[in-house]
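Entry: Arylsulfatase
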Amino acid sequence: MIYKKVLPILATVLILGACKQIGQEQTKITNHEKEGSKLPYDDPAFTGKIGKTYAESESAWPKMPSPPEDAPNVIVILLDDVGFGMTSTFGGSIPTPNLDSLASEGLSYNRFHTTAVCSPTRAALLTGRNHHQAANGFLPEWATGFPSYNTMIPRSTATVGRVMKGNGVNTAFFGKNHNTPDWETSAAGPFDRWPTAMGFDYFYGFQAGETNQYYPVIFENTVPVEADKTPEEGYHFMTDMTDRAISWMQLQKSMSPEKPVFMYFAPGAMHAPHHVTKEWRDKFKGKFDHGWDKEREITYARQKEMGIIPADAKLSARNENVPEWETLNDEQKEFYTLLYENFAGFFAFTDYEIGRLLTAISALPDAENTIVMYIVGDNGASSEGGLDGTINEIKALNGIPSTIAENLKKKDEIGGPTTEPHFPIGWAFAGNTPFPWVKQVASHFGGSRNPMVVTWPKVIKDKGGMRSQFLHIIDVVPTILEASGMEFPEYVDGVKQKPIAGKSFMSTFTDANAPEIRTTQYFEVLSNRAIYHEGWVAAHQHTLPWRQDVAPGYENEVWELYNIEEDFSEAVNIADQYPEKLEELKKLFDEEAEKNEVYPLDDRGAARLTVPKPSPLGDRTSFTFYEGATRLPETAAPNTKNKSWSMEAMLETDAQHKEGVISALGGLSGGYVLYVKDGYPTFLYNYFEEVSTLKSTKKLPDGLVSVKLDFKYDGGGAGKGGLFTLYINNEKTCELRVEETVAGRYGIDTFGIGEDSGSPVTKNYVAPAKFQGHIIEVNIELKN
């Protein structure tokens, strides 16, 4: 499979190789010759001689940017939603043998920190600035019109990819990109904040917080592409992106084995939906029957035994929001355990795929001079599955409950294409052992402390060593640049750059006792906030990740205080003992918040989803689409929710071409589709797997024809019902009443004309079910 994907690029490689041979006299600009204050560098001056004819002239090739002599390859691997105590490498119960092996060859870091949520962590990782400085105070879907929260990474915070590329390093990005504003992620762009415009020569991945692993919304550079197999044929995005990454890396080294590469490898794993085959899930059958309370104890004891945490570290108190395992009934225990077995299977599978990448890296001609930075999670384990967990994550995120009995009817399908699973909050707290709290809660280490493993065979000789310096995600960029012999320029593309906030921790590669580089660091997400300073942490936990409908306000806030030099796991709140220290740190937080553009704080939770945002659609209520308009994100499609609307398609058909999708939005978890089956126009509304079908009583006539769908909304709030009516050539053929409609979002799939890409809205056809006739246009009108 890998070689099939290599072939389309091979011709380019051969041509470029030939060009390289022709231009072999070309010289390079070494690092010491560059103008380090700006990128791109000025065009080099001609150093030859120009006469009247070539016989009187001397040629000289321009000096092109190139990395410093002996600069390493750099591979950054970033997982999603992983707790500190999940992997076997850091004392957890989920076997990650390939991560174990990597750690045995390099260094493990047990005091490394993220921002506590994905997009902010990724912005900080790529830019070396704090997340608010990079405009990513929270997620793109929750963006507001304040500079630190609009999620539009400014040109003044250029990425490490841009610096590496500008210094002659080939760069690539695989997997999850959640740093393009939500409204800019369609195939219509703009592409200014896509990976390919931010320093990466090649991008293969998805533009969202998550994707369906069986039906991913994939882009290659800026072009939407479809998977080359179905789930039934064995397709999984984790395998696909790994194949692509290996192929890209091998091609680079085939062409220029001496030239370093920079790769950012960011799987959607371990974010929900937790998709994996039954074979992987079944490997963990019965492994977690003891429940989440016992799991915390088992992991805590193992972490001490392995030396992952200090011998005197305490286990933080269990969270009062989590029910005790022994108080659950048998049905709850069965369902909750199934969900975590499935998650463990997904994690083991992910480790296997990353193992393939690591094997390919070890076979590089310059493997000894390759840095692998493996960051095990962009935040702590996620509690976004809620108190009960779910097998339809999008339904849950829309605030629609489902019973455990209802979910158990599909227990054999958990992890497969017909489900979108996420475990309940109890497993998240267990996964973050020994720390308190979870993803989104930036105030505590359960949200912000993630394992990291670093290898560099040429430099790191302390194989299997542990490092305990206090580090933050912003420290990765300056470390990469120091290791590569580069400096961050003062200007990039003519824009003056904000100073790098991070500091290099390269000193720890060769010295276990290297001095601390980071003595102060603030944390803030959704008003959960903390400040670390010289061994002390002041923390305020503000919002609950599984209750996005609550805005608690800022009155009577309670802050906690920890001395983490003596209390590794934030288990003992000593605020009452040291009130002056607490006030000192609260004042320091305010200073850091002002400096790093944190304000204004915003705890509105899910209400921020409704904040008006820029849109490629503007404020229009009338839209015309043509064939080829596919893979548009829901935010770039007409918003037909909570209102009356109509859709009219002008078609041309003949007797042999009357099948396929006219328009579709969403997927198996929820959505709608207007399609033709056996010649009959049919509308299907999927309300989170409760399906309503409206089938025309008449077939399509041959030739030019109008098919119109009209929806009259009941009104009176969000998610109410209404009446669908179907017309052929303005003649009413049938109608259907629904009592409920989707109020929030249909899911993680897309909108399209003429086909149902990705996860199909229904299994009544085989996706993409392209329309066989000709769609002249589809007109959509929003009525109120």
